[in-house]
Amino acid sequence: MFDVKATQHVLAVKDLQTAESYFLDKLGFSVRFRVDGWSFLSLGSFHIMLGHCADELLARDTHDHSYFAYVNCVGIDDLYRDYQQRGADIFQAISDKPWGLREFGVATPEGHRIMFGEDIGPSGNS
């Protein structure tokens, strides 16, 4: 039977050190391991593979194509407060959406965008 164990998102970055530092310091990821030109990072079962690609476009230059992940989670208000305290670039403030999710968005220094969402009840309560 097919089952998804976890996902890994591969991101091309121009500045590997800055990108890695942002994920560690601002978003709370930890280093799984590093190999030449690559950093493998995790936040629980959310895995990122940062690859040094000096000649590629910045993610922000791809506009709405810079979204690369939607993370369904629990404890979103705690995460949001933590990211505010850490100084993460929050481009969309936390709010309840009509599609039944409480969500917010963060961006990396190169413009990769991640959305975090938590299911809310029909009344809009978490």
Q: What labels would you give this structure?
A:
126 residues; 2,3-Dihydroxybiphenyl 1,2-Dioxygenase, domain 1; four-stranded mixed sheet; 2 helices; globular; VOC family protein; VOC_core; Glyas_Fos-R_dOase_dom
Please describe what this structure looks like.
With 126 residues, the protein is an alpha/beta fold. It has a single domain, classed as Roll (2,3-Dihydroxybiphenyl 1,2-Dioxygenase, domain 1). 17% of the residues lie in helices and 43% in strands. The protein has helices at 16-25, 76-86; strands spanning 7-13, 30-35, 38-43, 46-52, 67-72, 89-96, 101-107, 113-119. The strands form two sheets. A four-stranded mixed sheet has the order 1-4-3-2, covered by helices on one side. The chain has a four-stranded mixed sheet with strand order 5-8-7-6, with helices on one face. 21% of the residues are buried.
| Structural domain tally | 1
Alpha plus pi helix count: 2
Kindly provide the radius of gyration, computed on alpha-carbon positions and rounded to a whole number of angstroms: 15 Å
* Beta-strand fraction estimate: 35-45%
- What gross morphology would you assign? globular
What is the overall pLDDT average? 93
Name of the level-1 CATH class: Alpha Beta
Q: Largest sheet, order of strands side by side?
A: 1-4-3-2
Order of helices and strands: EHEEEEHEEE
Under the CATH scheme, the architecture is Roll
Helix % is: 10-25%
CATH fold label: 2,3-Dihydroxybiphenyl 1,2-Dioxygenase, domain 1
Class from helix and strand fractions: alpha/beta
| Count of extended strands | 8
Give the low-confidence spans: none
CATH superfamily: 2,3-Dihydroxybiphenyl 1,2-Dioxygenase, domain 1
Main sheet record = 4 strands, mixed
- Terminal CA distance reads 33 Å
